[in-house]
Amino acid sequence: MKGLIFGGDRTVDYVEVPDPAPELGEVVLEMKASGICGSDLHMYRGPKGMRLLGVTATGPIIAGHEPCGVVVAVGPGVTPRQARIGDRVMVHHYWGCGTCSHCRTGWAQMCDREPPTVYGIGAHGGHARYLKVPAGTLVPLPDGLSFEAGAAISCGTGTSYAALRRLGIGGGDTVAVFGQGPVGLAATQLAAAMGARVVAIDVSAERLALAQSLGAADIVSAGEGDPVAAIQALTHGKGADHALEASGAGSARAAAVKSVRAWGSVAFVGVGGEPTVEIGAIMRRQITVFGSWTFSNVGQGDCARFIADRNIAADRIFTDRWRLDEGAEAYRKVDEQKGGKGVFLFA
User: Fold this and answer.
1) Antiparallel, parallel or unpaired: β 2-6 and 12-16
2) Is 182 helix (H, G, I), strand (E, B) or coil?
């Protein structure tokens, strides 16, 4: 089969590898959708031969850590409760030792006994026709959800959901979402579905328009003024109840902290940038600030059921759909960071 890899310096390449066969405890999926994540840009933009911290792979790695598809082969030791041929599934794209306290509670990415495997980064991912993973990584895709929605939930949308749950979003709350890339757009859509008034902040007019269509009550252009002042004006001087920062920009993190009311809470989700948060602004106003990194496999399933039960059109955040052989064009478009999310679809 042919798989897409990152060649470095904003290039993609393709490698030919044998179709995978499942070994003990493993399954093979036929891909139906493989999402393009904003975090892919770190590898796409990186220099040729870039080594990622904690990744020990010695050969080319097929990209794609938002896989969704159908089980087509089951290895020895996999029980019918774990997987059956024909199952529609997502993948929790991490695998650890399986026995530490983090792994046993579904947080394999936090495994403290061995470096966790990250599919699409340290082991072959979903940007190919087939994907081999341990059966324990599978998360059922509810009936009624598209494979595209499953791909979104497998990273970006699931990440937003986990952060919103930790913020304790409820009806009547005002939530400021900084950054309307794919993760921020999903946060806007889900927070609105939770009953919150969402203020969406970004520098892109295109992304702000999309945020409004996904449920944002108010939009603020960070390139045309002070977003903190705008949020204060929208909330009669009190500030938002909660803020979620999804851009990774240091200035946005600082603004997120300043934008919430006394006793408010802020979730940092975006990766990158330098911290510029004023500790006094946190302490004197009793602000709770925390980092939120992806989600557990249990949380991934909870997110999927939340979306299915409320008929949320999670696949609306996709503005670009591609064939796998259009990878160069797809990543050039994602690199512009103007629209919504991209996804590779497999016939």
Assistant:
1) antiparallel
2) helix
Of the candidates 325, 307, 326, the residue with the CA atom closest to the CA atom of residue 315: 307
Q: What is the pLDDT of residue 55?
A: 54
H-helix segments, the chain: 40-45, 101-104, 147-153, 156-167, 182-193, 205-213, 227-234, 250-259, 279-283, 297-309, 327-336
Say if residue 17 is exposed, middle or buried (CB neighbours under 10 Å; 0-12, 13-18, 19+): middle
Average pLDDT over the chain reads: 95
**What are the chain's domains?**
2-155+295-345 (3.90.180.10), 159-291 (3.40.50.720)
Q: 331-335: long-range contacts at Cβ-Cβ below 8 A with a sequence spacing of 24 or more? A: 331/10, 331/12, 331/36, 331/40, 331/44, 332/10, 334/36, 334/38, 334/40, 334/41, 334/44, 335/10, 335/41, 335/44, 335/45
Query: pLDDT digit string (tens) for 94-113?
Result: 999 999 999 999 999 999 99
How many Å apart are CA 231 and CA 178, to the nearest integer?
A: 11
Count CA within 13 A, CB hemisphere, residue 313. 7
Instruction: Give one DSSP letter per residue of 300-322, joined into a string.
Output: HHHHHHHHHHTT--GGGGEEEEE
Lowest mean pLDDT among 81-85, 249-253, 304-308: 249-253
- Helix or strand run (H / E) with residue 140: strand 138-140
Contact 228, 246 (CB under 8 A): no
pLDDT tens figures, 289-342: 999 999 999 999 999 999 999 999 999 999 999 999 999 999 999 999 888 999
Q: Are 210 and 319 in contact (CB under 8 A)?
A: yes
* Phi, then psi, of 320 in degrees rounded to 5: -140, 130
Alpha carbons 81 and 70: distance in angstroms, whole number = 15
